[in-house]
Amino acid sequence: MRIAIVGSGRGVYPLDWAATLALRGHEVRFVTLGEVLTARGFEVRTRPIPRNVPQAVRAAREFLRDIRSFRPDVLHVNYAGGRLGTLATLAGVHPLVAAVVGGDVLPEQHSRGQAWLERRATRRVLQLADLILVKNEALRRAVAAQGDFAGKVELVRWGVDPARFHRDAGAGESLRRELGLAPEDRVVLSPRVLQPLYNVHLILEAMPRVLAEAPRAVLLVTEYNASADYRRLLEDRAVRLGLGGRVRFVGRIDHERMPALYSLAEVVVSVPASDGLPQTLFEAMACGVPVVLGRLPGYADVVDDGETVLVTDFDPVAVAAAVIRLFGQPSLARALARNALERVQQAALLPREVQRVEGLYRTVAARGPRTRAHRGWLFDALSLLLRRHPPQ
Known about the structure:
It contains 14 helices and 13 strands. By secondary structure, the chain is of the alpha/beta class. Helix 3 packs antiparallel against helix 14, helix 6 (169-178) crosses helix 9 and helix 7 (200-213) crosses helix 11. The chain is globular and about 65 Å long.
């Protein structure tokens, strides 16, 4: 199949989606605006993010040409909203598949709220989509709050490939040495995006209590799409708490090296204020590292407190208690990791999930036609000029 994918080039997972489909023998073109991380095995079309109206008009024209000239069997949008979502719908290409990821349909993920035009943009993508993919029941409910789309929603978790994500002690130890960690350091890993939504400060604030029980503990913080202001806030807070070298910012680790990073960790902590169903959870589970998760309803589809993960309240004391419990009870940590590995193989195995996606693509592609106009396109186009948020 010829599959055009629209998504953020700064996101690991839209690119991973494209690479996985390309490896399955599909012809894939990834269309976006702005920076693109390293991408192999498929075609990428991008251009600078426009800074004024003439640039925006030119970029939109080229963006639409990149989609239409490819003549895709399926147009897949990875994030049902944002400017990229609106641009994708303006191509008029069908079938249109929209993958919901969280921030597109969960208003609480926007600390400053969403303007009416942004909310409308998401609804328009969902209305025009021939197929909507969600990763859990919480996202299905969030889509339902946008309109009556139940007949075209399918649950696809995507998941992880065990050939790539598995425990690799040797690679973990090599990365440990590269990062300058001592053999006795006990690693607590935060693998999420370095933005306020992900509450990395709660993990940092838990560290003094963790260190009181485990003096060799060290928090590693990855820096995907990092907010410079938030990073400075964390650095200042680490100094005020006297954490010294027990908090380390490790930059943006290449996705290919993430299994090594999980493999050197003793505990992964993920406590965002709001979430969909993150790939980092599946990756940690597949790599056999116990996970501490914030108490959010969206996780209940795949994990259980005390069986596959430890669930914590959004409080540094509670986070610290969960980490200390795992440090102090190796048998519990091993049981959680073992059960989590079994669960991810049952619920989020990529080779199985990608076959489902291919089947869904073929089903909607069989409906044709490939291109058709839709009402309201002029207002959609004008709204792009009025919305100030960056592409997603």
